[in-house]
Write a structure and sequence with these properties.
Recoverin, domain 1, myristate, about 55% helix, three-stranded antiparallel beta sheet, single chain, calcium ion binding, mainly alpha
Length: about 400
């Protein structure tokens, strides 16, 4: 029970973990003659696989965890060391988990993260050192607040605490297959489950970015359009909307986007909460930046959805009235977000640019939903609003 208090596992969970541990342990005889179970390095991956079935047993990060948990550096981990370390991994605070990630990536224990250390986690067979380092230079430059050329613990914790997307990527990179920090992201990329990690980011970045005279890399509008076509399935008829998305990601209005702006933006629209995605789409369609969406902008919103290209004016007017809770003829961001939160199926009207959907089934790809279905859903919502506006806003 004392161990349960400090390890953050229940007594029942500890009993289960103890079974895995003892089945793989060697035994040492102490001075008193009592036997003590110790988990040697070569058996550590097997025990961890029992807890995390999808992990890569050869991952650098997994073996680094063994070194961290082997507090007395005797080449083995005892039961207390194992459950205390595992407890921090799965039940620690956000800052504790990020701190553990930092220690794991800090292979030489020097207190900073270097390109060489990160390269050990993201390098792939057959790649040149230049290809490996080019992206990592970008990552370190963005996280390195004091421009020292390395990332210290404070910089790492601050960056990942404030940017959940980086939190996700570094956690997946630490030990591939270990889903220990955050929920799995929503579907994207041809309807498959997301696998955001530094390897995926590096692959996409090197494929679609271009270098400038200073050696920095960025994505311009041409490359972004190609990215959206190749990776997100965007078609020619929605390229005007793709251009608007690029403008939203280009926060500096420089004509190109840096790696973090691009992937943070994609993470928001592909994996953000309903309110985050609703706010993004509101700002996307608020063409004049007035903070309100009017009839013309609602028309553009619905017409830009490939599946609703034949939307009539009556549908647009009804849709606007349903969103306009105060009846002033326009829709504020607050009204828009509230409407989507109460009726997530509204995301069907404009969320398919990134193939996100609040109404997913295993057998139906959101990209293949016929336009009649979307228009029918909108009509149904409008009819409900006409019958009882309060009920329409409670629909979910």
């Amino acid at each position: 029970r004392e161990l349960s208090k400090y390890s953050r596992f229940s007594v029942k969970e500890l009993e289960s973990l103890r079974g895995y541990f003892l089945d793989n342990s060697d035994y040492e005889v102490g001075h008193s003659g009592a036997k003590k179970a110790k988990l040697p390095r070569h058996k550590f991956p097997s025990v961890m696989r029992a807890v995390f079935p999808d992990i890569d047993e050869d991952a650098v990060g997994l073996h680094r965890l063994f070194d961290i948990w082997d507090v007395d550096s005797d080449g083995s981990v005892d039961y207390s060391e194992f459950v205390l370390g595992l407890g921090q991994l799965v039940s620690g605070s956000v800052r504790e988990k990020i701190g553990l990630m930092f220690t794991t990536f800090d292979l030489d224990g020097g207190g900073t993260l270097t390109i060489e250390e990160l390269a050990d986690f993201v390098a792939q067979e057959g790649e040149t050192a230049m290809a490996e380092n080019e992206f990592l230079i970008e990552v370190i430059a963005d996280l390195d607040a004091d421009n020292s050329g390395e990332i210290d613990r404070g910089e790492f914790i601050d960056a990942l605490t404030s940017t959940p997307f980086l939190f996700e990527c570094f956690s997946r990179t630490m030990v591939p297959g270990m889903e220990f920090i955050s929920p799995k992201l929503r579907r994207w990329q041809k309807g498959e489950k997301s696998k955001w990690d530094l390897n995926l980011l590096r692959t996409l970045w090197l494929k679609y970015s271009v270098g400038n005279a200073k050696g920095d890399r960025h994505v311009d509008i041409t490359r972004f359009r190609k990215f959206m076509q190749d990776e997100m399935g965007a078609t020619a008829d929605i390229m005007p909307l793709v251009n608007k998305v690029f403008d939203r990601f280009d926060t500096a209005k420089s004509g190109y986007v840096e790696w973090k702006s691009l992937f943070n933006g994609l993470a928001t629209v592909c994996a953000g909460s309903i309110s985050e995605r609703a706010a993004f789409y509101f700002q996307l369609y608020d063409a004049d930046g007035s903070g309100e969406i009017d009839t013309e902008e609602v028309m553009e919103m619905l017409m830009s959805s490939r599946e609703a290209a034949d939307t009539s004016k009556s549908i647009v007017d009804g849709f606007l009235q349903m969103l306009d809770s105060d009846g002033d003829g326009t829709v504020s961001e607050e009204e828009f977000v509230a409407a989507v939160q109460n009726a997530p199926e509204l995301m069907e009207c404009f969320g398919r640019l990134f193939h996100t959907s609040e109404v997913e089934t295993a057998s139906v790809d959101p990209r293949e939903v016929a336009k009649e279905k979307v228009v029918e859903d909108i009509r149904s919502l409008i009819e409900t609003a006409a019958a009882d506006p309060a009920d329409a806003r409670k629909t979910s």
